[in-house]
Amino acid sequence: MTSTQPIRIGVLGTHSTGKTTLLKRIEMELRAEGITVARTGRLGKRAAAAGLPKMQHHTAQSTEWIIAQGIADEIAARAQGAGVVLVDRAAHDALAYFHAALEYRGEAPPPRGGGTRTSPPTRLYPTAQVRPAVRDGPR
Fold first, then answer.
1. Can you spell out the DSSP letters for 8-70?
2. Cα 24 to Cα 7: distance, rounded to the nearest angstrom
3. Which of 20, 30, 59, 98 is the most buried (most CB within 10 A)?
4. Which residues, 6+ apart, have CB-to-CB distance to 22 below 8 Å?
5. Are 114 and 101 a contacting pair, CB within 8 Å?
């Protein structure tokens, strides 16, 4: 690729919906075309290994860590010369889980601050894939 900025593809969604599988397939296709690919991910497991809460116990601190680590992973991939960076569980996902955890616990979200945008805009392309076993129901 001749671009100085890698193409970033982020996938988000609930557990067991095929995000990682989709990214693995995209990675294989891109590598077959000779494109340098890097993948980020496993942020939830890495957060838990760092002692941070997750799922219904998700906090602002754990959310910030996941987002910051994801950004650091993207920066590292760019520094290593990746033409495409595949982001498994983008920052939007961490925010969604944080808000779901707050709702589960009956807590109000923190007030929005006046933060500034430092990253390029992200285009979201929603898509869904129904697995045959789910679509066809129990046999």
1. EEEE--STTSSHHHHHHHHHHHHHHTT--EEEE--HHHHHHHTT---GGG--HHHHHHHHHHH
2. 16
3. 98
4. 11, 129
5. no
Give the separation between CA 133 and CA 17, rounded to whole angstroms: 13
Give Cβ neighbours of residue 127 (< 8 Å, ≥ 6 apart): none
pLDDT digits (tens, 9 = 90+) for 39-67: 988 888 888 899 998 888 889 899 999 99
> pTM of the predicted model, to two decimals?
0.70
In whole angstroms, give the CA distance from residue 71 to residue 40.
9
pLDDT confidence of 16, banded at 50, 70, 90?
Answer: confident
Amino acid residing at 138: P
Residue 36 corresponds to which amino acid?
A: T
Q: Which residue carries 């996941």 as its tokens?
A: 66
Element of type H or E holding 125 = none
Select from 22, 2, 3, 4 the least CA-distant residue to 12. Answer: 22
